[in-house]
Amino acid sequence: MADFDGDKLHLFVGKMLGDLGGAYSVPTVRLGFRLGLFASLQTDGPATAPELAERLDLAPRYVREWALAQAANGYLTYDRHTERFSLSPEQAMVFAVKDSPVYLEGAFDLTAAMIEGEPKVERGFRTGEGVAWGDSAGCLFCAVGAFFRPGYVNGIVQSWLPSLDGMLPRLEAGARVADVGCGVGFSTLLMAEAFPNSAFVGYDFHAPSIEQANAHAAEHGLADRVRFETAPAKEIADGGFDLITMFDCLHDMGDPEGCAAHMRTLLKDDGAWMIVEPIAADDPAGALDSPVTRLYYNASTMICVPTSLSQEVGAALGAQAGERRLTELLNRAGFGRVRRATEGPFNMVLEARP
């Protein structure tokens, strides 16, 4: 065995224990969401384990162990004198306030979906083949939608659309908008609610996602002016759009450059394409110590690269393609003006114009 630095090893093992503690928390946290345990502590206040169990008609012994696990995680606050568990305001933002920008129920579900899909991705490592979107796990597309929803709720209308040059007045007056790669429709419906004079259509190649999107439109009373269609991006036949949006999906496409070229044909000459992509550095080595980069590279390994490789061309940009590489792709596809309009902790927003 090679010589090693005992202090460095101690620090590294400490890091690993922390990482494993987070991994071990995934199933217990998901139980907390599904069984309403976090929600009860937020809406009904602090409780002992027996009180919390009684509120939700759950088995007290299970609830006690769960609650102590979350206290050990740092996800609940425990008062040893009263034996009550509670959520601090900050903990509630992550575990109970669904419209919080850092509500993370979807992130835990996404982690479970990646583990479920592990055998198929392993096969891809050995064969070079991809794993089609929707095939790797039972409801990966549901988890992805839930993961991105808090960011969309707090970003699209408030800062992302306003960052586009001259677009707000057009949306307010009445624009034609295509949301390409719309998934289950969260992004499309948020825009439609904010701009009632505009017409919106969402496209996605995954039929089960479109089925859910249409159900969401009906649920929100928007089915009369929002429609969703199953169609690959390069096969969209409509055109004359003032705005095309694409949220966290260009890098997943097998042929992103071909898709971009087709978007150019669908857009009015004075229209804009808003491309929301995961925040990424142009030089991977410059961002490897970022916790966000860590999340995205792992998700990209398990989801984004396999998804792209399952499609024609299989460009496999990955979730960390970076602004420079994306800009070059857009330039080749006919977009002469590309800029970073704004950014947040998890996303960058590019504006592309002919």
TrEMBL record:
This is SAM-dependent methyltransferase. Residues 172-281 form the Methyltransferase domain. GO terms for molecular function: methyltransferase activity. Keywords: Methyltransferase, Transferase. Pfam families: Methyltransf_31, WHD_Rv2258c. InterPro entries: Methyltranfer_dom, SAM-binding_MTase, SAM-dependent_MTases_sf, WH-like_DNA-bd_sf, WH_DNA-bd_sf, WHD_Rv2258c. One of its GO terms (biological process) is methylation. Residues 29-94 form the S-adenosylmethionine-dependent methyltransferase Rv2258c-like winged HTH domain. CDD domains: AdoMet_MTases. The keyword rRNA processing does not apply.
